[in-house]
Amino acid sequence: TRDALLAFQKANPPLAQTGIIDRPTMIALDSKFRGYTHRVRLHFRSLSLMNVPFARSLADAEIVYGQYGIKAEFGSGMSLMLTPEEEVTFSRIDNSCQWLVTDGEYDQLHAMGPNVPATEIKVYYVLKLSDASGCGGHSVNRPACTVDNAAYRWDTAHEVGHVLLTSAFTPVHVNDRRNLMFPTSNTTDMVPVLTDRQVTQIKSSPCCTRM
């Protein structure tokens, strides 16, 4: 695979011949081999600067899902301007992460910012989560996930994965470090993968629409 990738990069200047699927290479591959069949639209809401730049998190989500013909698409983005009282409330999310959010800080957080269609996903970046680097729990008909500002490069894609897979899918986490849904953060540059069952479930999600 690496040899084929190097050959592709060599044949398509000005791509750097690294043997790594970086963003310029992914864009070039997409332009020549368009195979998207589904789309996931993401709307980013920021309460905090992130350890991993926003553009990198989005690009990495594009890479992970693009492997399976799913386009992770930027829907909108904004920095939420908090009042002093809100800054105190949301400086740390102390609620435990639950699949179904009905009240508490997550419920308040996910109501912030403009509404989006119930078939699209909001991604909230916050300063600190008390018990995780992210949470895919959300209210009914308000698909959203929350990501801690110290999260790693693949964590946004992981939390979006929880929303797409839904609480009904088992196993929730996979005991394979290569899998996107491994329970702890992938801190490497290795692109995470999904199983066939995961891909099938994701493509059946109301938030994953046919193109």
Mean pLDDT across the residues is 91
Q: How many β-strand stretches?
A: 6
Helix content: 25-40%
The radius of gyration over CA amounts to 17 Å
Largest sheet, in brief, is: 6 strands, mixed
Strand content: 15-25%
Q: How many DSSP H or I helices?
A: 7
**Structural shape:** globular
Question: Segments where pLDDT lies below 50 for 5+ residues?
Answer: none
- Terminal Cα span: 28 Å
Description:
The chain is α/β, with parallel strands linked by helices. Strands 1, 2, 3, 4, 5 and 6 form a six-stranded mixed β-sheet that branches. Helix 3 links the parallel strand 1 (38-46) and strand 2. The protein has seven helices and six strands. It is globular and about 55 Å long. It has helices at residues 2-11, 23-32, 54-66, 84-90, 104-110, 155-165, 196-203; strands at 38-46, 70-79, 121-126, 134-135, 144-148, 209-210. The longest helix has 13 residues, at 54-66.
Topology:
Elements: H1 2-11, H2 23-32, E1 38-46, H3 54-66, E2 70-79, H4 84-90, H5 104-110, E3 121-126, E4 134-135, E5 144-148, H6 155-165, H7 196-203, E6 209-210
Parallel strand pairs: 1-2, 1-3, 3-5
Antiparallel strand pairs: 1-6, 4-5
In short:
The protein has 211 residues and is α/β, with parallel strands linked by helices.
